[in-house]
Amino acid sequence: MIDGLRVLIILPALNEAEGLPGVLKEIKTQLPGVDTLVVDDGSTDGTAAVATACGSPVVQLPYNLGVGGAMRLGYRYAYLHGYDVAIQVDSDGQHDPVYVPLLLEKLKEADLAIGARFDGEGDYKVRGPRKWAMGLLSFVLSRITRTRLTDTTSGFRACNRQLIEFFAQWYPVEYLGDTIESMVGAARCGFVVRQVPVAMRERTTGTPSASPFKATVYLARAGLVLLLAMIRRMPKHLKGIAAADRSSVVQRELVARS
Q1: Cα torsion 205, 207, 209, 212: sign
Q2: Bridge partners, residue 88, by sequence
Q3: Which is nearest to 226 in space by CA: 168, 146, 142, 159?
Q4: Pick from 161, 160, 138: which is nearest to 149 by CA?
Q5: How many CB atoms lie within 10 A of CB 209?
Q6: pLDDT digits over 73-94, tens only?
Q7: Residue 100 and residue 22 in contact, taking contact as beta carbons nearer than 8 Å
Q8: I need a surface site. Which of 20, 25, 73, 216 has the fewest CB within 10 A?
Q9: DSSP per-residue string spanning 98-117
Q10: What is the pTM of this model?
Q11: Taking Cα atoms as reference points, which of 2, 82, 76, 77 lies closest to residue 34?
């Protein structure tokens, strides 16, 4: 626990057997009060066995679904096990757990706290079409969420109990659904989104996809995902979860004033 909250760090992992021991050790050292869950996304390199040997619970998908599918399973696990906070951390070492307390602090005023790379912390840079896509997405999503956002595709994010329940029932598995569409869906249902400046590190394993062609494809697909997220109808019962969240916030404020 951290400050009385049961915190679960979810690590979606595809063939991360090489880097996982270091990542899990760092989390345990810096955040001894949290639990971890490795979601093995159809790995073929022994990721699940390595995570188990490191002392972390593991759930396995029979085949690769992508980050969205892995996180949907992770949120269902968090909901069924009664966690207060779920935090997504990549298994490649890019996300520094030292920023987790800042994400938790931000959850006092938000339902979803995003670790943002381009907000004055660190020197992480992107160029070309990928930079243009991120700038456009940040511009549009800042207006949808009514707050300043600079890194809407960050996978370093924390959510509270109500949003865990929401994501356990609805979480897109399509490309960029885990970042763009999940954020748009949550905001459209009334959840509050905020960001925290963080510095991100170079990945310790794997190879980034940064060719101009892939960056251009990324730009086109990001625009399409955003369009679908805006026009897709949200199930009515999900808005009830957000409404209950707002009601509990008001009750807490009234108790604090009395």
Answers
A1: positive
A2: 10, 157
A3: 142
A4: 138
A5: 11
A6: 999 999 999 999 999 999 988 9
A7: no
A8: 25
A9: GGHHHHHHHTTT-SEEEEES
A10: 0.86
A11: 2
